[in-house]
Design brief:
Largest sheet: 7 strands, mixed
Strand order of the largest sheet: 3-4-5-8-13-14-15
Shape: globular
Number of strands: 15
Structural class: alpha+beta
């Protein structure tokens, strides 16, 4: 089937929490993750991507979660409710308790990045992020929204989960990335403005080698081992009153596809990979491959079920299909100095 039919971001669903066993993988990038066994009665949401009969990846027919029906809930369902936000260039689920996205998903192509001959809507010029402003998401209930004031003098950047640079088809699409429902608190210098931006750029450059690139961004809260030998999750809250949670880590999960050959455009090569980065200063010379984590470990940590076992079994690791190397480029300096801007080639 055509690669554009692999997935449509509007149909994502959140899976059930699968258990612990995430700590060791991120605390030490080389350590293996302990796993826990789930009960046979545990309800797990269907995978977002599964294998079709022809061997290609396709959207699962069962992604939509069924509504819970119970006479006990005749006066209302208390939740938790992830608000599904379908935008021009991305889809997200918003976490009302943490007041930032539970996950975001986007589909990158040369066209979506404004690098093809696809026409913009009539009368639209190229979008400009200087015309976009951060804004509260009024589609969310007021008591659960992140507020602009929450980030004021917090010490954290308003970190885009879907980058503005990924939305080049219209100003409206770019503006939607500045809604606070697409934002999470991130360390600024050394992370959001640097290494995290390099990783976002690497995801965009994949479109030079793959026809379709799907990117999932997932804030994480991972435990660490304290001096007493016990594992604890500790994180900061910002705002007044404090209500916006600061993730300890962020994950980027990618699925990229391309035809195996020009003569077989419907037979796809699929590559997947996941990277988990701490919300902290990361040196520019840190190798990207040092942050590789198995996709199922990210799923377990986030309580998501992204890909079916068939997709995982029939895909290569992304780093075996292309070079997993970030290009160090000081994007904040480039914005100040237009003479520093230059074209960047795709990973080889």
């Amino acid at each position: 089937m055509p690669s554009s039919a692999i997935i449509h971001a509007a149909c994502f669903a959140v899976g059930a929490v699968v258990g612990g066993g995430v700590v060791s993988a991120v605390a030490s990038r080389k350590r293996q993750i302990p796993t826990t066994t789930t009960s046979a009665n545990t309800s797990v949401a269907p995978p977002i991507i599964e294998m079709g009969q022809s061997g290609g990846a396709r959207l699962s027919n069962a992604v939509a979660a069924s509504a819970l029906s119970s006479p006990v809930l005749k006066y209302g369902h208390p939740g938790p409710i992830p608000d599904l936000l379908v935008r021009k260039a991305y889809t997200a689920a918003y976490d009302r308790r943490l007041r930032h996205p539970a996950w975001t998903a986007e589909h990158l192509t040369l066209a979506s990045l404004g690098k093809s001959n696809q026409q913009r809507p009539s009368g639209d010029g190229p979008p400009d992020r200087s015309n976009s402003t951060f804004a509260e998401d009024e589609s969310l209930p007021a008591m659960f929204r992140a507020k602009l004031q929450d980030y004021f003098r917090s010490g954290y950047d308003r970190g885009h989960m879907v980058p503005a640079a990924d939305t080049k088809l219209s100003q409206e699409a770019m503006d939607e990335t500045f809604l606070l429902s697409n934002i999470a608190p991130q360390v600024g210098v050394g992370f959001n403005r640097h290494y995290w931006a390099y990783l976002e750029d690497w995801c965009r450059r994949l479109t030079g080698s793959f026809s379709d690139v799907y990117v999932f961004t997932i804030p994480l809260y991972l435990p660490r081992k304290d001096a007493d030998g016990k594992f604890r999750v500790t994180y900061e809250l910002i705002g007044s009153p404090p209500n916006v949670a600061v993730p300890t880590h962020f994950a980027k999960v990618v699925l990229a596809s391309r035809p195996l050959s020009p003569s077989t455009p419907d037979t796809l090569e699929i590559a997947t990979g996941a990277f988990v980065l701490p919300n902290a200063i990361i040196p520019d010379n840190a190798p990207l491959e040092g942050f590789i984590i198995p996709v199922d470990v990210v799923e377990r940590a986030a309580g998501l079920n992204l890909f079916s076992d068939a997709v995982k079994a029939n895909s290569k690791h992304i780093c075996k299909s292309t070079k997993c190397d970030v290009m160090v480029r000081r994007f904040d300096d480039a914005q100040k100095r237009p003479d520093m801007r230059r074209a960047i080639s795709a990973p080889k």
